[in-house]
Each structure stands twice: as C-alpha cells, then as structure tokens.
Design goal:
By secondary structure, the protein is an alpha+beta fold. It has two domains: about 100 residues, Zincin-like; about 45 residues, no CATH class. It is built from five helices and eight strands, in the order αβββαββααββαβ. The strands form three sheets. Strands 1-3-2 form a three-stranded mixed sheet. It has a three-stranded antiparallel sheet with strand order 7-6-8, with no helix packed on it. It has a two-stranded antiparallel sheet with strand order 4-5. A hairpin with a 2-residue loop joins β4 and β5. The longest helix is centred in the middle third of the chain and has 20 residues. Bound molecules: zinc ion (2 copies).
Length: about 180
C-alpha cells in the first residue's frame, strides 16, 4: 500500500481523521530511530536501514509490537509518529507524555521505543528503493539496476517464473533528510 494511503487509513481508523495531510519521506541517514516527525509543517521521515534493510533476516519488536515484516513495522512506526501529530493538533505537549502513552496503548502499542537494531550492512550514503506495482513489496539497492526488473515473488506466483511487465519494479532514489 502506498505510504499516503496507509497514512489516510490509519488517520481514519485511529485518529478520527483529524490529522492534517503529511509529507512522508525515506531517509538513509536516519538511524537513531526507525522514524521521526516534524509536527509544525507535518513531515514524517522513515529510516531505510532500520525499516527496510533490518528485516532481511527476521522480525523485530517495534513500539512493543512484534513485527515479522517491514510492512508491519512500517504500520507501527507510522502510528507512533501520528500520535505525536495528534497531540500537537490538540495543542497538547507532543513528546512521549502520559497522554501519548495512553493513546499508544489504546491503539495497540505497549511501548514507545521505536529503535530497531540496524542490519550489519548499515549505512551506504545513497541508494535506491524499488517498489513492485502489484504487491507493493520494497527492495533496497545501493546502486540502480542497469536494466528493467520485475518483482521476483509476483513473477513466480503469477507468471510461472518468467519476467512479466505487470510486475515491473519502479525505482526511486532515496533522499537524504
Ligand atoms: Zn516518538
Ligand atoms: Zn510483487
């Protein structure tokens, strides 16, 4: 699911839709936490090493929730950052306050901790994220693919293992933020 759609879904489901539109970007440099937010002109930054690369060989606990995949972790991180914004919108202190923890618990998170152990190969300065147009799987690469590539999982499942245009991976250079 595209990030903005996920944001809208979570906004409606957990925050009564009161959160304003919010820019969401990926960063390779952010490694202190899996995500962070600037609330004034809302902007969420997500960590490529911690949210995408860290799930190469197993799951992690994020905000007190066991996440087996990057999709699950992404959801928890967005929820966490959105609580900060939810407090700010209501003119409340927007740190990890008592109100923050109450809301977090209400939407299924027992902890505020959202650090994820970085993968061993952490920290190239630039890179590419590829997304499958069909299943939204994300692939992280240091370098750009030199040719057109398709999603291996979808091609295996729906095209007998052959290259199929429908499952082309769309690449985007990771912004450093
Ligand atoms: Zn936080
Ligand atoms: Zn796919």
């Amino acid at each position: 699911m595209p990030l903005q759609e996920l944001y809208d879904e979570l906004n409606a489901r957990y925050f009564e839709g009161i959160l304003p539109p919010c820019e969401i970007v990926w960063s390779r440099r952010l490694t202190r936490a899996a995500g962070n937010i600037r609330v004034q002109t809302p902007k969420i930054t997500l960590s490529v090493p911690l949210l995408l690369e860290a799930f190469g060989n197993g799951g992690h606990t994020v905000c007190g929730v066991w996440c087996a995949s990057q999709e699950e972790a992404l959801r928890e991180i967005l929820k966490h950052e959105m609580i900060h914004l939810w407090l700010y919108v209501q003119k409340l202190p927007h740190g990890h306050t008592r109100e923050f923890r109450l809301k977090a618990r209400e939407i299924g998170q027992s902890r505020t901790r959202h650090q994820i152990a970085p993968p061993p190969s952490c920290a190239p300065k630039s890179g590419w994220i590829y997304v499958c147009a069909a299943c939204e799987a994300r692939v992280v690469r240091r370098r750009r693919f030199g040719r057109r590539v398709a999603c291996a999982k979808c091609c295996r499942e729906f095209a007998g293992g052959n290259f199929d245009e429908r499952f082309l991976l769309r690449g985007a250079r990771v912004k450093s933020a």
